[in-house]
Amino acid sequence: MRQLRGQERVITANRQTSWAFADAFVAEDDALRWARDRARDAGLPSVSPGTGAALRLLAATADAKAVAEIGTGTGVSGIYLLEGMRPDGVLTTVDLEPERQQFAKQAFRAAGFAGNRARFIPGRALDVLPRLADGGYDLVFCDGDRLESLDYLAESLRLLRPGGLVCFEGVFADGRTVDSAAQPAEVLRLRELLRTVRESQELLPTLLPVGDGLLCAVRRG
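User: That's the sequence. What structure does it adopt?
Assistant: Structure tokens below.
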């Protein structure tokens, strides 16, 4: 391994600390903390504050009125998305477990969002997404079954308007995506997703090092 020069050595030594600082940069309110506690009680992962803040920023930048979310969880990511969306925007959120969506409804109310700001659809994402309108969404956030990620991408390209955004949570897979050791099928699928998004002529991609990795891409017009 080549010897690091001075500046490279400093960047390498401080990178983990800097990432941790960036991920904790945005403070969370009581509604978000409540939703996180419910997720922790249920043994569910939830997006990091840095990932949530990135989603909020992207929704605001897109002036999003219609957002689709795969994986409601207990509402952590949904609160961030709603905070970034237009005041008249509607979040359509899909989850296999209706019980989780009940927690999300409570969290959204606690965060001050009216009941008509979110549409909750229980069911398997690949059964629900085909029923949603072509080109009707400004942003699609995917935080579901990693083995279905390529199918989510195909549905997202149909759902998004030109200039809309698709985002995938957890693409680092706790470091396994770049680990050369043998990996399970879900990690291999994430690698395929990353290659597909990067090489697509329909998408303008980036990979954000927040949380467990947030893959984002704009659908070209």
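Strands lie at 66-70, 90-95, 118-122, 137-142, 160-169, 203-208, 214-219.
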